Amino acid sequence: MDMLKQKAIRHNYANLVDCLNPLRVMDHLAHLLSLEEMELIRKSQFTSQEKTRELVAILLRKNEELRPFECFIKALEETDENHKTMAETILKTYTHHNGPGVFKRASITSLSHAEQTEYNLQM
């Protein structure tokens, strides 16, 4: 993941560890995570906080070409209102540290993706 995007997540790390439901978010990231990564996160001996730490660590290591930041934000938004608020906070942190023009939403319109929003984050 891009360093500036990592910085935005790390800035909100404590809140993520305290409030995130890692299994619900992980379900929205199945296309991005390998089966081994998902199993590691699911391990029963992990607390919710440890699962969140593992999920975030895995996402931070993902190649930027896979768009892990954008996928994580979308997963947060799709999980529930508390997670959606976390997504907004992370995005505000990202745009605050990188200037107001760095983030914009672009709508995608197609038969299968009507009303879906994609994030185009630029550096």
Tell me about this structure.
By secondary structure, the protein is mainly alpha-helical. The chain has one domain: Death Domain, Fas (Orthogonal Bundle), CATH 1.10.533.10. Helix content is 60%, strand content 10%. The protein has 7 helices and 2 strands. The protein has helices spanning 3-11, 13-19, 22-27, 35-42, 48-61, 68-79, 81-98; strands at 103-108, 116-121. The chain has a two-stranded antiparallel ribbon with strand order 1-2. A hairpin with a 7-residue loop joins strand 1 and strand 2 (116-121). Helix 1 (3-11) packs across helix 7 and helix 6 runs antiparallel to helix 7. The chain is globular, with a radius of gyration of 14 Å. The two termini are 13 Å apart. Residues 104-117 have low confidence and may be disordered.
What would the keywords be for this entry?
about 120 residues, mainly alpha, Death Domain, Fas, about 60% helix, CARD, DEATH-like_dom_sf, CARD domain-containing protein
Q: How is this fold's topology laid out?
A:
Layout: H1 3-11, H2 13-19, H3 22-27, H4 35-42, H5 48-61, H6 68-79, H7 81-98, E1 103-108, E2 116-121
Antiparallel strand pairs: 1-2
InterPro entries: CARD (IPR001315), DEATH-like_dom_sf (IPR011029)
Protein name: CARD domain-containing protein
GO biological process, one term: regulation of apoptotic process
